[in-house]
Structure formats: structure tokens, C-alpha cells
Amino acid sequence: SWRPSPERGEITETTGTCLLCPGGCGIQARLVNGHRAIYVKGNPDHAVSRGGLCPVGAAGLQYLYAPYRITQPLKQTGKRGDPQGFQPIAWNEALKIVADKLAAVRKKGLPHTVACITGQDRSSVTDLWKQFFAAYGSPNLYTMPRHSDSTRLAVALATGYDADLGFHLEKATYVLNFGAPLLEGWAAPVRIQQIFSRWQTEQPGLPKTELVHVESRCSLTASKADRWIACKPGTEAALALGIAHVLIREKLYDAAFVSEKVFGFEDWTDAAGALRKGFKALVLAKYSPKDVAAVTGVDAQVIQELARELARQKNAVVLWGQSSDTPNNLYHDLAFLALNALIGALSDKAMVSLVPSQPWQALPEPAMDLEAFKGLGQKPLGQPTSVPKTKVRPNTLHAFLNALANGEEYPIELLFVHEANPAYGLSENTLAVQALQKAGMVVSFASYLDETAAYADLILPNHNAFERLDDVIGLPGAPFAFYAVATPILKPHYDTKSTGDVVLGLAKTLGGTVAQSLPWKNYEEVLKLRAAKIAEGATGLLVDATFDPASVEPGVSLRANFKKAADVWKKLTAGSCWVEAPQALDACTTPSGRFELACQGLLASVSTNAGDELFMAHYKPLPPSGNAGELPLLLTTYRSLSLAPGYVPNAPFMNKLLPDDLLLKQDVFVEVHPETARKLGLRHKAKAVLKTPLGEAPVRVRVAPTVPADVVALPEGLGHTAYDEYVQGKGVNANSLVEVHLDPVTGLGTVWATRAQLRLA
Amino acid sequence: MVIDLDKCTGCGACAVACQQENNVSFRPDESDKLRTIAWMTLYRLDNGKDYPEHREAMLPRPCMQCDSPHHSPCTFVCPVNATVRDEHTGIVDHIAVRCIGCRYCMVACPYHARSFNWWDPKWPKTMEAMLSPEVSPRMRGVVEKCTFCHHRLNRARDRARINGEDPDGVVYTPACAEACPTGAITFGNLRDPHSDVARLAKDPRAFRILEKLHTEPKVYYLSSDQWIHKQSDNDLS
User: What are the 4Fe-4S ferredoxin-type domain coordinates in residue numbering (chain B) (predicted)?
Assistant: First the structure.
């Protein structure tokens, strides 16, 4: 027929949890005859999303029914990377190939040459991977980069805890935000959108929350903020230290908290007995408003004013970061953390709290044989030896891929890729492509035939995000521990298998201690174990939309409103969420037992005659490579909620939202200031070539005063080469043009700005 | 309908939910904005100032469901009564099977709220499974537009009748308002003085687009930015 006539029938509703991003939104789906999903909406009873949804979630069915779904296990029969070479293979045959390979590598005594990259860091599958890698004996387990990779290290150095940062935005009266793209999909996007909405709503008797946003580009967050401070790209940390300078000089900081709970504010003596300068001395010496004004382009007067305004506030909080999946320079993370400490946001007011990344012990201790100990003891591939030794394992994915691509240290015999698309989504994605080609065997668990799956030897397709039973452990940026179970909204309609079940199956086949460490019958049993753990702990609450995060106080456990494990499971699968208070910051486990502005944990990783600055927050951008004469501009990238940059590509519905001065046919637009355009002889909509040290790409020019002169801004989320005609070949992949700087301390791949040239095509 | 632009973050969830709910078709290239079909469109506004005084905002635009006396601009010009205003509910509807594709209504609409089907709608085979049976897909050669999800109203009225309640008293939510993560879209009965929409429409921040044309839109916008208010009248002031 020339237009489809949709099947009619009884319409029913189910609840679930959206797994398309780490935001953990509750959803409801409408089904026709129980097997055809026709509509996804937010679950109004959900504790966090309260009926809200983002465009990716709203377009979720376009992923479920995408033509580029992988419908059955595939084996590459041709050359790696050849899309025509994939042939269907039976599940048992495919699993046997993987199990045989795992057994053979272990038999050779090389278990550490098995590696995994997972894009899921908040699901129990990740814990199964951890358990599997510990029992099997490999340290090479990585997650796709996140901002929490660097903040967790900063928190571990400053406090000794392994915890994520939670921000009490519900209580805040003043938010000073250094570049975090709050409205472009930051942390748990729908939660942030709803908090923003509350800030915009006048509530009788309550002061209006003021949002001050610092960023170089006029993003939507900048436009919508109460005040936008435009600074030079990547200089936010310097501004934070300038504000710290004024707070210290004018004695506006929380003196009680600093004197009782903070180490390294005053000068200090290190373990070797050497006298070291403290934070106060360094900040007073180096970050006067005048000096900072020269670096950031923000007026000295404004810096002074911001500091005084910040100090006046009762409930102020400092936020920072680029996108949620870009680790930051460690010293810059420490600077923003220090500013929070100075304004007392870490004191009993707890505007910032520490949320343990695992609310309970994840899984029982793995059983390890000698082989496992030997393998796990190996150095993670490519990891610099200088990384700080803390409770947090540095997620040095870029260093790993670098070593793999260059054939350094040791080869990787088997590489698992789970719910991740590094060949597209990793900054400097060509590195991932090179690394994939060097790995002995690549096994992908992708649901979609994406850029990375194309390089697999074997694809063991996972159920789609709406078809599988899974869970969400913790919400990024939320000031409370969180757990939710994602129930499938409908039955899987292809020959796919839950990756959790596959991992358990592989462990069983391997036998020995590996099987002992992963004894569960199936993934559902693992999730039920979580419910049992919650019931056993008897703290925390099972909540719905009536939950008020402002009522949660750190260190004060919530009194359980449940008893039996079976009840907990029933409620979790019906859409309730478990929440619990974060820990109190009373006993830091640092060498000084206090919050350390001067991180003694760094003593081991920086040389003994290192400058005093290297122990604490300071402004130190890594110089971009390339010649400023040839590449006179700075390239920054930006995102928007209507452009999915993550594991899933932009759905056709979302492509409709893109304005024609962002994407026109196959051309993406870069933003340049009218002055820059005039200098370069570029008119609005002109075709141009964008060049960086990593390569060049055709673009068009949107002349708009959204960026300062000599800066060019490119949107993220375009330029796919895989998927189907609705997705591929549109624009340029920003990741292929930006430069990654390895943080010299943590070894994490950071991105801030790349030198660039723009010329008429 | 009232749309609070102070709360709107331009995320586009409203437009996506609308397309999903109403079986709006899509094509591989959607960048030709004169050919694309969109019931709810996001317009980008800016204050015209230079960096760093520059500011931008997004404005979601459904059909304004014009309430001008006798006729809406589109219904006035339709030669075949394909587009009509239901004086009982106030909804301006478009009946695709009556439409002869002359596109007079598209010319008449000052809000560009109407789209034309230049091609037969075609979904990737696997995506036909997600089409809603409550809204017929339109064919090549006809116009389509936002209906305030009037099938949801019909559903609510049916339910009221079954329950023995007054069908005229029902409330319902269109897909866009339901999806909005910031609650920027409020929907209700403007004629009911106790409704949220009636209250918000009288807010000092409220305005309508191209008010001077006296099309009497039933969509109100709220904004505390004067530069946004100014653009609502486009050069007509």
C-alpha cells in the first residue's frame, strides 16, 4: 500500500526506566496488543524525572525499531572493518569461539591481554565485568571517559574517599557555574532541566535562585542564566582561583570550616620535613584580580564583585566541567573543589556532598587463583607510572588505546566492547580505530551496527535499551545514593541476548575460580541480589515523585520504609527508586585526616623537589600543539540536547529539530564571530575548510556573535559514518578534529581547545 | 496553551513527542525547511547584540488555533472545507482526505504552522511498527498541521461518556505538554476563568505572536525579556 495502515488493537501501558543515558528517567510506554510500542512518555510518579523526558528518550522508539539494529550474532568472514563480511552465526557457536579464546589466552598465562571497554558505568553489568576481570586476571577494564574520572581522583586526593560529587541544587540560592552545560544535557539531564524550571518559578516566601554562568560561548545555558560572564576559552579555573584570591584577601571565606577541617590552607611541612607553601600563600601571590583578568579576559572589577556576591550567599554552590563525558585537568578540578571548600559548601551546610559510587559492597569478593593474581597485578596497558595511588583506579582509556595502537608494552589478544562506540564517540576517535585494528580479536556487544561494531570480529548483540532488564546505580551529580531497576517495556523482538547473561555464561564455561566468582544463574538473579542487599541494609527509602532531595542530609541515614527483599523487588520493578543519604564529610581518610587543599597523596607521584604548586589547585592549561601562525584560531566544540552525541546517534525525529544554519544537506555550520569572518573573507553560509593538527573537514560558516573573535565553535554529535541513510554522512565528527591532552598527573585524556584554521573552500 | 519561554530550554522533547504521537513522517534530509513537515517547530531568537551582550532563546511554535471572529486565516481561504474550526472546542482541524492540496491555507497562515506532503510518507520498514493507530498517516499532496492532539480530546470525551460524566468538562494533555521536562507548556481551557492557562494568559509577561494581525491566537507565550516581546510583532509595531 502507498501509506501504511498501523495495526489496531487494545492499547496498554507499561513502566520502565530509560537506559539511553545515565539520567535514569522513569518512562511509560503505550503498546498496541502488547507487542508494538507506539509512544514513550515520562513516568509522572518517578522520583527524579517526574514525568519529564528529553528528546532522546522521546525518540527512543526510533532506536528500538531502527533498521540498523543487529538482529542476530554476526561473525566477520572477510577483512576486519568490511561491512559486507558479516555473516550470521548461531549463539552457541559464537559463544564457543569467545570461551575458547578466553581459555586459550589464560592457558598461555596471559590473562592480562584480555581487555574491555564498556560505555555503561552505572549498571550491574559493569560490576559483573569487574568481577569477571578480577577472577580471570586482567587489569585492562575501562569505561568510556566521564568527567567523574577526574573528579573522583580529585575527591580521593582531597578527602580520601572514593565518591562522586553530588550538588544540592534543590537547596541552592546562588549557583556559580564554570562552564558546565546545564541545559545542554549535563549529569542527569531531566533532573537538571526540572531544577532549572524551579529556579525560574517564583515561589512565595523563597528567594529566587540566581544562576551565574561562566563560559566563552553564548550557549543556551549562558543565555538563560541570570548573568553570563564571558571568559576566554578554557580559563574558567583561573577565574575560580581569582575569586578565591579575593575571598582570602578580604577574609570572606568560611574561616571556621577552613581552620577546623582543612589542611594545607596555611604553609605546611611535608613528610621529608621540608616547609611548603600553603594554598593561601600561593593564591595570594599568583591570582590577583589583575593577573586573572589578563588571563581570562574578565574585568578585575567583576572578579571582585563575583567573590563578594558569592560570599554573601547563604546557600551558594560552585559547579564546573565541560560535557559530562570529558575528564578535566586534575589541578582545575581541585581548584573548583577548593573554591567550594572556601565558601563552606563542603561544611555542615553540605551544598556539595560525597556520594559513594557503590552504595553497598558491589558483589562478594571474587575468588582468585594464582593466575588471576599474576594477571591483575600487571600494569594496565599504557598507564603512566606516575598516576596517584588512591582508592580510585584511574580510567586511562586514551593511554591504553595509544599503547595498543602503537604496539607498546604488550599486545591485546582479545578486546570486548560493550555499549560503547569509541570509534566515533571518543575524542581523537581515530586513535580508537587504530587500536581496534591492532587488537587480536574484537568482540562487540552492540545493539546497533555502529562505527565500532564495524571493526568487530564477532558481534554478540545485546537487547536494546527498552527490551532488557537492567539497573541504574547512582545518578551523576545528584546529592543522594540512588538505585533503580529498568524493566523491559516489551519482549526482545530479535535474536539478541542480555550481555549480563552472556558474561555469566562465559564465566560458567571457563569454570574454576572464574565460575566460582560469578555463580549466578542469570542476570535477573544478580539484580535480585541488589534488592536483597537493600532489604538487608534496612536503610534508605523507596520513593516516588513525592521525594524531596532537599530533605536528605549527609550522614543521616533514612529510615527504611520496606522490610522484605521480595517487596523491595516488587516495588523497584514497578518504578520506585531507592535513595539514601550521602556520607558525611567528618572523618577524611587523608594523611592529615582533613580536607586537603595541599594533597599529600600526590607526594608519591610528583618528584620530591617538586614546586609547592604541584600539590594543589593551580591554573595550568596544557599548550595546544600546532603553529599559531598557521592555525591562528581556537576550536571549541559544543553540544545541545537535540543532538545526541553519545552511544546512540541522532534519531530521524531529532534531525528535524536542527536549524538550517546548523546542518544544511550534508554540511555542518561552525560559528564564528562577524569580525573573524570579515578578517577571513567568509560570508554567512559560505563553504569553508576547517583545519586542525588532526586533519581538515569541509564546513559552512554561521556568522554570529555567539563566540569571541578568533574562536570557532563546532557542534558535537554529527559526522557519523555508520548506521543508515537517516544518520550517516551528515556534517563532521567533532571528535576527529579535537586534540586530546593527556593530563600529566592522572594520565586521563582531557580536551579543552585545539588550534585551528578556517579558510574559504 | 501557554508556553513559558523563561522555562523553555529549547531541548525539543515537545517536537519529538509530537512527531511520535501524530505519525509525522520524516526523510533522510530534513534540512530544507520549506519542504520538511513539522507540527511543532523550534525557532531561534536572538537579541541582535554583539558578544558578550548576545543572547539567544528558543520559541516552540505549534498551530496558534486562531480565534479571530468568523474564521481563522486558513479556514477562511480553504475552498473545500478541509480545514475548519470547531466552534465548540476551539480547535482548528485539518481533514486530510478532503484536502485538494491547493495550499491556500499555507499562504494564508502567518505563522508557517502548516506543512505540505511533497512526497508519499515512507518509513523504514522496521519503523512502521511504531506508528500509532489513533492518527492516520497523511498522503502525498495534502497539507497537515498541529491539531492540539484532538484525538486525545476525543479519547477523553469517550471515556467521560462511558463513565456517565460531562464530556465537555474533560481535561487532557497534548503530547508536547506531556513531554516537556521543564513544565514550560501549560494546556487547558482558556474559557474557564479558573484554569491555569486563563490565569497565565493574563500574566504581565504574556504576549502572543503577531497580535496586530488580530488573528487572536489561542497560544500565549510568557517571557520576562523585553527583546523577546519586541520580536513577537516582527516589524509591525
Answer: 1-29, 88-119
